[in-house]
Write a structure and sequence with these properties.
The chain is mostly beta strands. Helix content is 12%, strand content 45%. A hairpin with a 5-residue loop joins strand 11 and strand 12.
Length: 759
């Protein structure tokens, strides 16, 4: 655990408990803020408290709040720099809490990844100690690579095993309720970040959630065409509301908590009595699915949004339509209403947010900034701010007085799709991202996404901006030069970047492809890079000048994979046209084509002697090719889904493959048999690499984890959790320097630490 933690662990349990539990309160009570400050910036103390079975990360987070109620705040020694330092560490712990709850050894990884941005002396001193932690093997970030504090994100809540479609928050801001494609709802304590309980009963995806103002009941809507009313005290279902003919996409609750309003794929809105559990009446008028509903606080009006591109305003007393709001050019996915009932806000597939005057029935203005469909909107209690969630993976905060965007919240690795007290999911699109709610005090937002997570955002601390290492879009491929001095990354942003692997600094950008970069390879001496793209071409680049040498054309469809022989004279590529092509890098000409796969070729590798190529395909097979005879030698079968990547050991005796089936397989190329399967990832494994000595493999997955495997035992040595689904990885010849890329555009530079004891 570290020298300090080991010494503490040797003490009796009562001493450990007393020391870790009472030390900081005593410092505060005695008016000794300097010692309080020193302990909370001491990495060893933080690690000891997190690892102690009676405390953990939440107890440590609470320690940072002790000073808030203390006169120690006004102590002359306790200056603003120290207050800021403690605040940054606390928020970093908040942001990492879900990861630290699952694995306490990741404290150093998380603090380095989030706090290396800050040059403050005490933070840097703490991180220097963290770098030396070697109680267990771990992956040390070499540069700041995780979302830092002060950029909005407070905490990630994990527990759903599929997309989060809806979230709602109680009036006191202490609880959130989420609904998911996994057919469940979860109730979360927003103070501790813990799941309280799970609500089960729906037979299909839960797409909408609302909560009564007293916080005692939740109402959910589902693809099973029903609504359910839940008791949030007992965690039990009270009753089911049936009547809709198709899926329920939206639900709202009136301010007095006695009525619910729902919208459905059957084009109707229904009003329900929550006392009797009976339907009161149905509102008809939309010509297509109702995607969202909102209700005014006086519960006299309801506003509905539809796939028919309109919003309708309904009088709940007369049960009649008052008027229709027209202006969006595509499906209206979300609606919210200001507390005074005078304005409505809508979000649409046309990428805009519109603000409507509910007195005149006219559009006031349009907010434009999202780069993709707007799927969710919400409004603060004072009616001055609006929030919009979009398929562009962001939540935007708007000032309704100035009609300007205030800031953008980024962090989800997939789309976010609904916002507000009343949560709505776009009907018929279960692959859409899903939800955002705002606490009544306007200080926090809670969002849910297709990345299966709920994120808690701080809407106040957002002033500092940081330059994050990476690309503007998904990083699909990375490679490392043999001298471990350079890394090369390729992205959906159509660029290739060349990085100094020592400093993590970018020093070249290669542009020329007209579509996404799917793969990159680098020659042994690091003088050339070869890239494959969705523009159906490969390009050869001079890494000294940063110039394109020539383009290789011949594939009829996307180039998904590329490998280069050790002598740098040949490149091998795999394509969606089901073929592998072998290219002469001296002449820039195609030598020959290998055919045999029945579907797209996603992966290629070449043995060190340049005599064999290995390919992986969407047909679930791996083929081994003789590059001398230009014939297929044999086929390896065992994966149940597409093979995404292949690595081969330096001696050419083993191949390692990864697949959509969540596994990694190790193959003996001499016996042509599978040796064993590595299991541990919970989602598709996108990439795999192997160390130069053939003793370890690394893999990365859509579950955001990078794992290091011992190929002798089949065990995981260490793992790293990224900010988004990981798409690619590579390892330097030194066997400890690792580069990975993710779907948010980040490039991670990591070093495997604490492995001396294993060798």
């Amino acid at each position: 655990m570290g020298e300090f933690a080991d010494e503490l662990a040797a003490k009796p349990l009562f001493y450990q408990r007393a020391y870790l539990g009472s030390l900081l309160p005593n410092y505060v009570k005695s008016g000794n803020p300097e010692k309080y400050y020193q302990k909370l910036t001491d990495f060893n103390f933080l690690m000891a408290k997190i690892q102690h079975p009676e405390f953990g990360v939440q107890a440590l987070i609470d320690d940072f709040n002790l000073v808030n109620a203390s006169e120690a705040l006004i102590h002359p020694e306790y200056n603003s720099e120290k207050v800021k330092t403690l605040s940054l560490i606390q928020v970093a712990l908040w942001m990492s809490a879900d990861i630290l709850d699952a694995d306490k050894t990741k404290l150093a990884e998380q603090l380095l990844g989030r706090l290396l941005y800050f040059e403050m002396p005490q933070i840097q001193a703490m991180l220097e100690v963290a770098k030396q932690w070697k109680a267990a093997p771990w992956l040390r970030p070499l540069i700041a690579c995780l979302t830092p504090p002060r950029r909005g994100l407070l905490r990630t809540l994990t527990g759903h095993n599929h997309w989060v479609n809806a979230v709602a928050v109680t009036e006191d801001g202490k609880r959130a309720i989420s609904g998911s494609t996994d057919k469940t709802l979860k109730v979360w304590d927003l103070t501790t970040g813990k799941e309280e309980f799970t609500l089960r009963g729906h037979s299909d995806s839960v797409d909408a959630v609302a909560v009564t103002p007293d916080g005692k009941r939740a109402i959910s809507g589902s693809w099973d065409s029903s609504l359910k009313v839940w008791d949030l005290t007992t965690g039990k279902e009270e009753f089911t509301l049936t009547g809709h003919a198709y899926s329920v996409n939206a639900v709202a609750v009136t301010a007095e908590g006695k009525r619910a309003i729902s919208g459905s794929d059957d084009n109707t809105i229904k009003v329900w009595d929550l006392t009797t559990g009976k339907e009161e009446f149905t509102l008809k008028g939309h010509s297509y699915s109702v995607n969202a509903v909102a209700v005014t606080e006086d519960w006299k009006r309801a506003i509905s949004a539809s796939l028919d591109k309109t919003l309708k305003v309904w009088n709940l007393t007369t049960r009649k339509e008052e008027f229709t709001l027209k202006g969006h050019s595509d499906s209206v996915n979300a609606a919210a209403v200001t507390p005074d009932g005078k304005r409505a806000i809508s979000g649409s597939w046309d990428k805009t947010v519109k603000v409507w005057d509910l007195t005149t029935g006219k559009e006031e203005f349009t907010l434009k900034s999202h780069s993709d469909s707007v799927s969710a909107v919400a409004i603060t209690e004072d009616g001055k701010r609006a929030f919009s969630g979009s398929w562009d993976k962001t939540v935007k905060v708007w000032d309704l007085t100035t009609k300007e965007e205030e800031f953008t919240l980024t962090g989800h690795s997939d789309w976010t799709n609904s916002v507000g007290k009343e949560q709505f999911i776009l009907p018929g699109y279960s692959d859409s991202p899903n939800a955002v709610a705002v606490t009544p005090d306007g200080k926090r937002a809670i969002s849910g996404s297709r990345d299966n997570t709920i994120k808690v955002w701080d809407l106040i601390t957002r002033k500092e901006q940081f330059i994050l290492t990476g690309h503007s879009k998904w990083v699909n491929a990375v490679a490392v030069t043999a001298d471990a001095k350079m890394a090369i990354s390729g992205s959906w942003d159509k660029t290739i970047k060349v990085w100094n692997l020592i400093t993590g600094k970018e020093y070249l950008i290669l542009t020329g492809h007209s579509n996404w970069i799917n793969s990159v390879a680098v020659t042994a001496y690091g003088k050339r890079a070869i890239s494959g793209s969705r523009d159906n071409t490969l390009k050869v680049w001079d890494l000294t000048t940063g110039k394109e040498e020539f383009t290789l054309t011949g594939h009829r469809q996307w180039v998904n994979a590329v490998a280069v022989t050790a002598d740098g004279k040949r490149a091998i590529s795999g394509s969606d046209d089901n073929t592998i092509k072998v290219w002469d890098l001296i002449t820039g000409k195609e030598e020959f084509t290998l055919t045999g796969h029945s579907y797209s070729v996603y992966a290629v590798a070449v043995t060190a002697d340049g005599k064999r190529a290995i390919s992986g395909s969407d047909d679930n097979t791996i083929k081994v090719w003789d590059l001398t005879t230009r014939k297929e030698e044999f086929t390896l079968k065992g994966h149940s889904y597409a093979v995404n990547a292949i690595a081969v050991t330096a001696d050419g005796k083993r191949a390692i493959s990864c697949s959509h089936d969540n596994t990694i397989k190790v193959w003996d190329l001499t016996t042509r048999k599978e040796e064993f399967t590595l299991k541990g990832h919970s989602d598709l494994v996108k990439a795999v690499a192997v160390t130069a000595d053939g003793k370890r493999a690394i893999s990365c997955s859509w579950e955001k984890n990078l794992k290091v495997w011992d190929l002798a035992t089949g065990n995981v040595i260490a793992s790293f959790t990224g900010e988004s689904a990981l798409a690619c990885c590579a390892i330097a010849p030194d066997g400890v320097t690792i580069v990975a890329g993710d779907y948010s555009g980040r490039v991670y530079f990591l070093r495997l630490e604490g492995v001396e004891e294993l060798t």
